[in-house]
Amino acid sequence: MAHWGVPGWVLLLLVGSAGSTAAQGRPPPTVELRENYPNPFFPATTIPFVLAPQRCEGGHRPLVSLKIYNVLAQHVAIPVLLHADGRRLDEVRLTCGLHEAYWDGSFRQKNRQLTPGIYYAQLVVDGERYTLKMIARR
């Protein structure tokens, strides 16, 4: 019997599986996590995302978090929301439209520094997860 370590399971949950929305007959997504720029980056990057108007029907303001993970699925950082007094994107209620998060490459643990490699940005909107692969390269 195969033994799965926790990091493998967590990474599987982070990456998930993505299929074509149109091919599955679903309506268009109400959240779009766009490609970070620059990518590759070092040390900082901007991560744009869009909350579609349908997400905010009836005055709803989605609950949004964005976290950065390394390839071992370890949580390393929480970016800040650009153009919004530098609030960390950790369970923040947002209006619909285009938003940009900024990660300066710093880690939660102050003694850690960004190293080249693969990182994942995971956006959570009202409990739904969206994941983006990013490359840090000098």
Mean pLDDT: 86
Please count the beta strands (DSSP E, at least 2 residues each): 9
Return the CATH architecture.
Sandwich
Could you list the spans in which at least 5 consecutive residues all have pLDDT below 50?
A: 1-6, 8-13, 16-22
Counted by DSSP, the helix tally is 1
Silhouette: globular
How would you characterize this protein structure?
The protein has 1 helix and 9 strands; from the N terminus they run αβββββββββ. Strands 3, 4, 6, 8 and 9 form a 5-stranded antiparallel sheet that branches. The chain is mostly beta strands and 138 residues long. The chain is 7% helix and 36% strand. The protein has one domain: Immunoglobulins (Immunoglobulin-like). β3 and β4 (75-77) form a beta hairpin.
What's this model, at a glance?
By secondary structure, the chain is mainly beta.
Based on the model shown, name its key terms.
Immunoglobulin-like, 138 residues, mainly beta, five-stranded antiparallel sheet
Mind sketching the topology for me?
Layout (H helix, E strand, L loop, with lengths): L5 H10 L15 E3 L11 E7 L11 E8 L4 E3 L2 E2 L10 E2 L3 E7 L13 E9 L2 E9 L2
Antiparallel strand pairs: 1-2, 2-7, 3-4, 3-6, 3-8, 5-7, 8-9
